[in-house]
Amino acid sequence: MQHVSNFLRRERNRQRTQPLLPRALNEECGVFGIIGHDGDAAPIIALGLHALQHRGQEAAGITTYHEGQFYSDKHLGLVAEHFHGEEVLSKLKGNAGIGHTRYSTTGTGGLRNVQPLYADLDRGGIAIAHNGNLTNARTLRQQLISKGSIFHTTSDSELFVQLTALSRGLTMSDKVIDAARAVEGAYALTVLTRDALIGVRDPVGIRPLVLGKLGDAHVLASESCAFDLIGAEFIRDVEPGEVVICGRDGSLTSRRLTAEVKNPRPCIFELIYFARPNSFVDGESVYEIRKRLGRVLAEESPVEADIVSPIPDSGVPSAIGFAQASGIDYEMALIRSHYSGRTFIQPDQKIREMGVARKHSANMGVVKGKRVVLVDDSLVRGTTSKKIIEMIRDAGAKEVHLRIACPPITHPDFYGIDTPSKEELMAASHTVEEMRDIIGADSLSFLSLEGLYKALGKGPRDNLRPAFTDHCFTGDYPTPLSDMANTAEKIEQLSFLREAR
Amino acid sequence: MQHVSNFLRRERNRQRTQPLLPRALNEECGVFGIIGHDGDAAPIIALGLHALQHRGQEAAGITTYHEGQFYSDKHLGLVAEHFHGEEVLSKLKGNAGIGHTRYSTTGTGGLRNVQPLYADLDRGGIAIAHNGNLTNARTLRQQLISKGSIFHTTSDSELFVQLTALSRGLTMSDKVIDAARAVEGAYALTVLTRDALIGVRDPVGIRPLVLGKLGDAHVLASESCAFDLIGAEFIRDVEPGEVVICGRDGSLTSRRLTAEVKNPRPCIFELIYFARPNSFVDGESVYEIRKRLGRVLAEESPVEADIVSPIPDSGVPSAIGFAQASGIDYEMALIRSHYSGRTFIQPDQKIREMGVARKHSANMGVVKGKRVVLVDDSLVRGTTSKKIIEMIRDAGAKEVHLRIACPPITHPDFYGIDTPSKEELMAASHTVEEMRDIIGADSLSFLSLEGLYKALGKGPRDNLRPAFTDHCFTGDYPTPLSDMANTAEKIEQLSFLREAR
Amino acid sequence: MQHVSNFLRRERNRQRTQPLLPRALNEECGVFGIIGHDGDAAPIIALGLHALQHRGQEAAGITTYHEGQFYSDKHLGLVAEHFHGEEVLSKLKGNAGIGHTRYSTTGTGGLRNVQPLYADLDRGGIAIAHNGNLTNARTLRQQLISKGSIFHTTSDSELFVQLTALSRGLTMSDKVIDAARAVEGAYALTVLTRDALIGVRDPVGIRPLVLGKLGDAHVLASESCAFDLIGAEFIRDVEPGEVVICGRDGSLTSRRLTAEVKNPRPCIFELIYFARPNSFVDGESVYEIRKRLGRVLAEESPVEADIVSPIPDSGVPSAIGFAQASGIDYEMALIRSHYSGRTFIQPDQKIREMGVARKHSANMGVVKGKRVVLVDDSLVRGTTSKKIIEMIRDAGAKEVHLRIACPPITHPDFYGIDTPSKEELMAASHTVEEMRDIIGADSLSFLSLEGLYKALGKGPRDNLRPAFTDHCFTGDYPTPLSDMANTAEKIEQLSFLREAR
Amino acid sequence: MQHVSNFLRRERNRQRTQPLLPRALNEECGVFGIIGHDGDAAPIIALGLHALQHRGQEAAGITTYHEGQFYSDKHLGLVAEHFHGEEVLSKLKGNAGIGHTRYSTTGTGGLRNVQPLYADLDRGGIAIAHNGNLTNARTLRQQLISKGSIFHTTSDSELFVQLTALSRGLTMSDKVIDAARAVEGAYALTVLTRDALIGVRDPVGIRPLVLGKLGDAHVLASESCAFDLIGAEFIRDVEPGEVVICGRDGSLTSRRLTAEVKNPRPCIFELIYFARPNSFVDGESVYEIRKRLGRVLAEESPVEADIVSPIPDSGVPSAIGFAQASGIDYEMALIRSHYSGRTFIQPDQKIREMGVARKHSANMGVVKGKRVVLVDDSLVRGTTSKKIIEMIRDAGAKEVHLRIACPPITHPDFYGIDTPSKEELMAASHTVEEMRDIIGADSLSFLSLEGLYKALGKGPRDNLRPAFTDHCFTGDYPTPLSDMANTAEKIEQLSFLREAR
């Protein structure tokens, strides 16, 4: 949700210098909502956000509603670190509420940028949680400020709140629709008012949003895995451009943001990378999709080897698929530590040069003297792969072959995925052979774009109306990029308050 | 600055149950500002706020400006607890800034309500610190919300920010003047923009504001004692209804809020109670004023006794005046602890019944067998006086006479002084004789209203154009009380977000 | 290391009520040491402890030595949460040091019980880190107190420190050997003096200890995986009953605790459960051993099924072994969350009844309509297995067969493994058929004791001189249990100081 | 109680660089104890320590006893910051207990050095709180270590615990007496066992200790002001060399440390400086004593002036005495801030050069054009006086005369008063005229030694058997200074553990 500007990128990069094995790609949010629950909403929301924790680990927030009053609590860190226990959850009163989990807290906002965002409107309060990123945020923000609006965050998500407050729409859902029509980019929203839980998905359907039921309560979530954790029933995906209004009275109303239906293009990275393996997206198991990616990859780029191993845990399903298609034994060439979460030991230069790794350890017992195929879901900067291959060789592997279950990533994202800048995307400036050389593999192959669409059952790609948002592989962005047109003027270059922390 | 509603009063009362010897009256803020300093502004502001610490102990904030960027830091607690040391202060960059120290953090806002408040306006950022309380805050707030403004605090001070943002004034000072003209009540403001430090005092001049120089820099503060601490030179009081604009270029411009000059009525409580003894108000030493109050009190209500003692530290100057006028020896019948600050031991009921006191101890060596005159600056609830007199008697005093260096307080304040509700004001419902009986003194006398004006050199009181805001003694409020007209509707009764802490 | 008394068990159980999916077995410590390093020891120790984090997650401590001064730092929580960054590590000066990571902080000690423990002796300071548990701690402690010793922890490990202080031995290693000879039970020690790093392993060799080199430095660790992380070379296991003295001058001396060599019986649970898969124990890869357990299990208890899945991550190697031996496809029927570490959302009763799980999620895409074999490394209470099987069935599995890669656990441990009491050990009071019924599996099989020894290459079991400490399966404890003889008198029943936290 | 070594002095000096106006002298402890109370002891102890807060502000601890178990809690900071509220106090169970408040936490110990100290002895637990300082601590400590004792603090007070543990005395009081007989120096102890509260005062009676009753409970405290706060009745001083044993059964037994009675010499600094004005010492009011010091000072060193003012608060009683004897008006030339406690704003060099003060402000209204006599209780380094005189002059005083109500301090203390080293004692190396010149006063006079003894009613001084411990003025130390004989060997030079904080 935060505008991807030079300033923020610098901030992020500064933070990224810490981890030795940086996370490659990060999506920036999960949203959740519930109304009409037979009991307190807050514990359910906390569990739902916990299930969506992989979508954002830096901060989480919950807002609930009870008898004329909204209650809110936000926290930096993991959901479960704060949102557990009677003491915290009992203060979030009411049987309706929304929640948000977020990746990035960089930028100038700190806790203020943590969602849900809230405003007192003329007709009562409104709280909004947003997954995605807008591409005309800067322009809109400047327009509103010139008319007297005061922004309190540096998040593009606040535009939804400000536009809703200014709307002359009669009902809350009218106001929310007015706001959504004014913006451009990617958004899946959960919105809480006194009377309803509202879900909104952008017309292109870039970010996912699913609808379910828990008893009589309606629930909304970024992914179906949140429903499994709370024992809710999956009903259906919210459609691209759809607004679902779940009334406090149990009613369900569907409205549309646009008259004509656009070509929906959900983000292909949700399938390849972000979504949990046990989620279902568009009726398909993510785990099975990834196994198919591994199978097609094995067909496209076979290799003579003794064992197939994932880079755990991201590569597990595609490695299983690769092993099954190739007939080579599946083994764990790498052991993943459970304790390498958000904090890292920062060793001095000398130790770093030892090639120390903390997230993965080579499993010498299984790789010594073997020809090893390593399978991962994607390759971004290549630094992690380089270190892992070195580790595997040090442990005695005879050959190391790297297989990536998606095409080369050549273009940055602007819709809420925290990709590095183009210069840092290894595939943007290197051939596959150059990359192989740099990371030190005996062979390196990517899944082809054709293979990708084939594995997803949507191939071959229709270049006029592609089935997915796939600009990271193709450069074919699904919306205008208004803010990016003028990179010289950024939100951060306005005189904005910097909190001295 | 917080609207004195039932909700807040309840909140405050809840907190007040803790201290055994509650603070009687509390003013709710000190403000400070500097521009053009030859060095960093933040350490100077921190020292200035420290000197104003008696005006508010619950929270403090500083906002500075440097090369297109505003920097802000806010903290619950005393100024010196947070705003010291290179690490904190060096982040507040720039040679211009404002600060605020505040009494109350109750209510629904927490740290969000701590000032300075900030907004990005069309023409750049603006930060505002406010001492005082508005009396039409509720009404204005509802009007602005209905037009699309989003409020982020529960503080009445935010109205200045919102009104400034909406103003069509060409310059920042035009905008600030537009905002000040729309409100009603008491306010002394320090305002920081990219180009200037602006000071504003309400047309009645209820709250004080003084102007000084530190080298080439202009400084503003609630009281002159802040200038002494930083070594600044006192120039003059900002006039009631005056707007002083201290430019970054060293210029000083004076404008007025109203065409005609109103009858200025500075708050008499600043002289009697709030201001530091070493401050000068309207050219007079507060210490000397209070000594005169004690002198006139000794003349009006003499008593045969062996010693005169203050209730320290508030009663010290008037007790010295009383002793000098009466010729009775000045002694310390009570020893004040230096360690009874903001945290208190909360003993169980049994201990409480022992009549335990922690702020003052009786000095048995000096009171045993003596007739004691105790002098204090004011009497609010009477609970502290009752306990102290009991203590003095237990220590062996033969007689205890209480002399109060101001008239009985019969009416609550709405301009930023945290008086208790009318029911809790002892003098609102009791005669002097009833009060004497309840607190257990051998005699009790208050300074008369006439004596008060006489000691202040402004007597007798001109009932049409009184020289001071003195409603606490007279009920004569200097402004309309719009919000109080309709006590049924309060800000807090709007559906407002409650942070779950 | 903490004496397993009723008191502590109660404390632990109280804490255990929180997690819904309790950890089944926990070992209580990892130890590490280094001397003669070409650089600061602290960052290396921190990395080594991080690699041993699976052996204890509740607290960690490091003690180093530099020019006549010992430096120590201890912290509750994970190693990486505290021991990273220049600021913390630079205070732990010197190129020699030891570290400890610990499971339990329950009991009366808090941070005081965290190791390494330290004492100033006549001949200089000594610091000790202990993995294991003593079985005559209570008796010894009472004897020493009656002679004037003052204990500062409730940990049995303090006996090593006290006995060392009282020893009349001439050298530090003499003193340490004196102390070790007086105790009974399990211990692997790393000891730091001014001149040497000393490693000690109990005569039965219950707990592991390995020796390595990092450049010219000698290193000691509980497991070889710590050497991999820091890039050290594995030299050999420290022998049961051996004392290795690594001098500051690079020398290495070996001494023995006992004249005659006892029958060494390393703890079989290290192989089955505790050690990391990438560690080598007695020259064998733990991962390969566990795969063999799975293979023999598949031979002993075959089943007709569609997929084999581990309960991740503990069951992964044996499930791979089972899948390879049986020819059934290996799949992930369960997805493990990375965010279910030490803090858990504590839902209310209603939510708990929903059967909510947070560590594992069923992978519906892969289990629907399938006959599933679940493989795990052990079964303790059975509660987790029951919930998981329920989850798999809810996700649509046709049959669920559970296979456990070790025999039924029927006896508690007293050597440092945090087993539940006998009543909570499911296999201590139920037949296999009863257990199958309770946990709701279609079939349940354990690896046989014969199969276990066979897979370990030491079979069949020599009942007179068994190759392993295997009392958890057999009740055959390798040492006397002096303290346990008199369960009525416990350390905690002495009048011991209780810190009021 | 911490040994005054070079190391610690360096540490303290380092910390002293922070405050601009350093505290001149600091005593290092208050002790308290109660047994047989009709209710919980902990809240009473907390109040008692709060009343003794002036004797030590850096840390506080409480240990109680209830049904076979001791309970302890210690905290850095003021008593009231931690020891209040049900949550904290209810964990300290029982109707008997002791407490300690302490000045210094410098040195190597941190929280470990905070008292009471505790040990499990053969016959049950014992807790000890110590006010004073031993002068043979180093020697004894080395002896005990060589016999196998393990020390856990760097405090000399731990010797009492270690010696008690090693004593072969039959009863607890026998053991405590054994321990006290082995040490040399100053000590007032409160000791808690299962059966009794024991009070011990060293044979010279350097540090004070008083006995009282609260209902049926016996209470012990460093000063009688603690009794006033809790409503207890003062019984008598504990005699020098006396051991009072207050039994759980209400009994009171008195024993003696030495057969022959020594010449008692209570510390004269308690009267002049440390004790609270409302305390009674040896039957005399401290406030009245100090007024007499001021009176004699006025007689010895009169001056023509317009006003007499204390340096508040320390100089208040002697200034009142001076004013009464001289007939000059008593005024407040300085206003003391209530908010300058333990944390200070640390301004940069430039601000420091402005001569900024934060504890005291000049009261310009009262000093302008006046001849001012400033009275203080003592003069140590002279830095504070210099700054204050400068401030008073800047505020317009015509003349400034400084009068000190005790003789020049020429020798350091070794009995628990935190005096600076000899080099920093201004009077140790300067004549009065030199001092006057440095601090910039128009005149400077000290009370003479004769005047001092006269004001105390014990004059003239008996040089063979002086009535007080007065070495700070005379160099006449009342005990051997064994440790000081060999300043080259200090406790800190042994290899002692340094906690890395």
From TrEMBL, chains A, B, C, D:
Enzyme class name: transferase
Known pathway: Purine metabolism; IMP biosynthesis via de novo pathway; N(1)-(5-phospho-D-ribosyl)glycinamide from 5-phospho-alpha-D-ribose 1-diphosphate: step 1/2
Active site per the UniProt annotation: 29
GO terms of molecular function: amidophosphoribosyltransferase activity
Cofactor: Mg(2+)
PROSITE patterns: GATASE_TYPE_2
Binding site for Mg(2+): 314, 376-377
Keyword check for Protein biosynthesis: no
Stretches assigned to the Glutamine amidotransferase type-2 domain: 29-249
Enzyme Commission (EC) number: 2.4.2.14
The record's free-text note on cofactor binding: Binds 1 Mg(2+) ion per subunit.
Superkingdom of source: Bacteria
Reactions the enzyme catalyzes: 5-phospho-beta-D-ribosylamine + L-glutamate + diphosphate = 5-phospho-alpha-D-ribose 1-diphosphate + L-glutamine + H2O
Keywords: Glutamine amidotransferase, Glycosyltransferase, Magnesium, Metal-binding, Purine biosynthesis, Transferase
Primary role: Catalyzes the formation of phosphoribosylamine from phosphoribosylpyrophosphate (PRPP) and glutamine.
Family to which the UniProt record says this protein belongs: In the C-terminal section; belongs to the purine/pyrimidine phosphoribosyltransferase family.
Protein name as annotated: Amidophosphoribosyltransferase
Taxonomic lineage: Bacteria, Pseudomonadati, Pseudomonadota, Alphaproteobacteria, Parvularculales
Gene (name only): purF
